[in-house]
Amino acid sequence: MKFKTIYSVVWYTFVGCFFVWLICGLGYRFLFNDTVEQSRIELTQALNAAFPREHYIIDGDVYDSNRRNLLSIGVSINIKKDSLHKDIESIKPISGEWELIDQTKSLYVYENESYRVYVTKNSENDGYIVVLARNNWLEILHL
What residues have CB less than 8 Å from 101, skipping those under 6 apart? Predict the structure, then answer.
């Protein structure tokens, strides 16, 4: 008799948690999908403004980076090396007031009041990967 009671409690707890997870997941997907898409468009526009195609040789389109969580999405581009951009120090945001806040041999981090830009070396393509993300506390914790 006790076994059936424990089994029932565990089963109903599992079913209840599953439905809460399902409702929250579907609610987030359908209610906040426009907000996420609008944020992605805004980040893409900011990345294209900071790294214009007229100044850099950009390989492909803007894509979603792996720096993603519920509140922060990053977008990325690949930049090829050319005669003007032979080293990582020459890859800088063009428009806006950007400040270099972190610098290592293979990573440069620039920041303004709204965004952070991470410039890293791309070992596969002999170029650079540029990631633009919002400048908020969650991004700093995500490092």
Answer: 109, 110, 111
